[in-house]
Amino acid sequence: MKRIVYREWLLQPQRYWGLLAILAAVIAIGGLSALYMEHHGHWVTGMTNSVVWGVPHVFAVFLIISASGALNVASIGTVFDKKVYKPLGRLSGLLAVALLIGGLLVLVLDLGRPDRLLVAMTTYNFSSIFAWNIFLYSGFAAIVIGYLWTMAERKGQYLQKPVGTFAFLWRLALTTGTGSIFGFLVGREAYDTAILAPLFVVMSFAYGLAIYMLVLFYAFDADGRPIGPAMLKRLKNLLGLFIAAILYFTLIYHLTKLYGAKNDGIETFLLISGGLYTGLFWVGWILIGGLLPLGIIYHPELSQRRDWITAACGMVIVGGLAAMYVIIIGSQAYPQEMFPGYNVIQFGAPGDIGGQVAPYSPSFPELLLGLGGVGIALLITAVGVRVLQFLPESLADRDVDPHASARSPA
Amino acid sequence: MNHETESMNQGRRDFLGAAAGVSAAAVAPGVFLHTPVANAAPRTDPVTDMHRWGLLVDTSKCADGCTACVDACDSENGLNLQAKPHGQDELKWENQRAVWIRKVKLQDNLTGHVTNLPLMCQHCEHPPCVDVCPTGASFKRADGIVMVDRHTCIGCRYCMMACPYKARSFIHEQVDHKLTRAPRGKGCVESCNLCAHRLDNGDISTACAEACSAEGHQALIFGDLKDPMGPLRKALAKTPSRQIRQDLGLNTGVRYAGI
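Predict the joint structure of the above. Result:
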């Protein structure tokens, strides 16, 4: 195997600054949206006392679990000793930190009192999985930065395996913790199940890898670096495996719920009668996020083409956002069942929702705040690859895989 | 001279007597009014677990269409001072304004029997809202009252996700008017605190139960779950009661008869 040479991203200055300007604008709009919601209060959003977490949480949770998944590529190289993945490791670490920061910012800016962040950082209740997550998230960022150092600095290379393994275990804990935010909620029918934790772990693998592949393709295309077909095949096959795992865990989640008669209501709602949520589940989560990209990835011809693989990655991301929308918002919109065997005729004043599906329509500021988080993640990545050596010069098969170069006539 | 001295002394006695009378009159109500509730600690002392405050709701006595408990809670805790933000939709605002107690009407799916009941924070012994709160702002007092410390609430709303009773409200809007006894601020979460301000001043009552009695319904009985001779325990001993979502094992402080 050749020695891997890393080089800063050599995009033409006009294009690079143009890209930064667009991202800065997206971030600025997101920031202004947060300011607007903070100034007026959450009444300007679609959120209510029934649907208390809205679109910002959809983006935040998606970004946070994707951060964990984006580190996957580095873990495969370091922890599982797949040498082919080693050149991909640095971008993997950078993207993981960037996505995490983006997600956390959205989460924090959607708090009722974001000015009390210091309270959250100094006052802990350790029976709360949320409090644990504060450590899991900040610890993740610190560990991955250390991990990046071991990858980039020759003096630190002997630490790469232990630090990489630690980061791998840490991110499993992180995604388990994020899934458990929902899984531990006993009072809501759609949650209260341990399977949400592993479901979130496999979701993180797929979403993180899909984002990683899109960023990699864009960055490499932009300054003309090659990606070999064998490398492409590895990445897309890995994505296929993760998508299949999501479908499997989704199936088990619903089978588990369907088995108990007490969950008939929520299952009917999510799978059949839930309107938008049912549509997002079948069309977004299952079809666009699962079956279609699987079809592309294992199609004999389409799977050879970069543009189709790119489309499959995009679909996984769209499907992932749909899945988050169903899990986070759909599950809140469904009424909490407090009185089994009874029909709730009246619940407080008209409009005060209980016993019936709660309305929720996201407001623009919420959406823009979420997109601002995506902008932050991409800006950090764009600046990172430009100023530091994160990207390998080539991912051509002969440069990364000794077997491929032995097979190739060159 | 003696006469003068005597008349002076008499004057002094009259003055002292009058002063003692005035003092006694001023102090007596405090002494006599507070003596029967000797267990009510002065406000400077921390609450203890000698009591566990709770409620029994007799749904058979809860009248259809009556909102006395809701109205009383609203004025007691300044919830009626909340103002709909300009331009907000009326129905959406009802789902955004803070509600501590609400009237719920249920119909049995099989028999068609209709039941009315007030629903508020159930003051669980093992409150899910307290478990999930990252900062510990959602807490349970030693006397069993579950409430929110508004100084450490960061407005994450995880407690609202966790509460099985939809008992909590988030303050969605700027608050212009509020009562000293019920502080309220944009971006924090709140819920029924069993009129803790009354209890802490030695008044063993809640606005909702008081209003229900005043209406003559007696559907709400407030008291100490730890006092076997108290009105709440006596009522609970006489009537079969259950907890809402009893399956969760939260051991609620609010019990219901007739559902």
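The CA atoms of residues 52 and 225 of chain B lie 5 Å apart.
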